[in-house]
Design a protein that fits this description.
The chain is α+β, with helices and mostly antiparallel strands and 187 residues long. It has helices spanning 3-10, 15-22, 79-84, 105-114, 116-142, 145-155, 157-162, 165-172, 176-186; strands spanning 25-30, 35-37, 45-51, 54-60, 63-70, 75-76, 91-94, 98-104. The strands form 2 sheets. Strands 1-8-3-6 form a 4-stranded antiparallel β-sheet. The protein has a 4-stranded antiparallel β-sheet with strand order 2-7-4-5. A hairpin with a 2-residue loop joins strand 4 and strand 5. The protein is elongated, with a radius of gyration of 17 Å.
Length: 187
């Protein structure tokens, strides 16, 4: 996905502001298995996925708990680092070789101060990330694993072909055996 499309899905900027913002965005590539963001580290960049898949997870009692998947057009960031400039709690691992767009948070903050349109883009960006987090929280609290799997199947069927079942089971909060049962019931 091209950077202009990604920026526009957040908030449409006037062309001069978009071009200014794009001047600070650079393409980077990482291999499958690379952790772009590390827990207990203050992250200084945000990333947008041009091509590839990633997952966010946290360690709990020596077990990785996946709580988010991202694909083309999605953002990789530690919200705690982005908002509060503090160490984050999540790791973000690439599940495929990925091409990403990188934007340094410090440069973005300077752009916010100098361009009201980019500042509004940043506000919309934070609002959309907050809504996504809220939706994940509500889904996790009030839907069964079967309902969450069905939702994943309906909204992101391509993810099921690209992500290991162990990660999907972790995301749903169940074992792989339970996931196999759910998949058999749905077929």
């Amino acid at each position: 996905m091209e950077i202009q499309q990604i920026l526009d899905q957040i908030y449409t900027l006037p062309e001069a502001s978009r071009l200014l913002l794009q001047n600070y965005i650079h393409e980077v590539s990482f291999s499958k298995g690379h952790n772009v963001i590390r827990a207990e580290k203050t992250e200084t960049s945000i990333y947008f996925i041009k091509k590839g898949i990633a997952r966010a997870y946290a360690n709990r009692d020596s077990t990785e708990v996946t709580f988010w998947f991202g694909k083309e057009g999605d953002t990789l960031l530690s919200m705690k680092s982005y908002v509060a400039n503090e160490k984050g709690y999540e790791d973000i691992e690439l599940l495929e070789d990925c091409d990403l767009y990188q934007l340094k948070t410090e440069q973005l903050q300077t752009l916010f101060e100098n361009d009201i349109h980019i500042a509004n883009w940043g506000r919309k960006f934070a609002e959309k990330e907050l809504l996504k987090t809220e939706e994940r929280l509500i889904s996790r609290q009030f839907r069964t694993a079967t309902e969450r799997y069905t939702e994943l199947l309906q909204h992101n069927p391509d993810l099921l072909l690209r992500i290991q079942l162990g990660h999907i089971a972790s995301y749903l909060g169940i074992t792989q055996v339970s996931l196999s049962r759910i998949r058999a019931e749905i077929k």
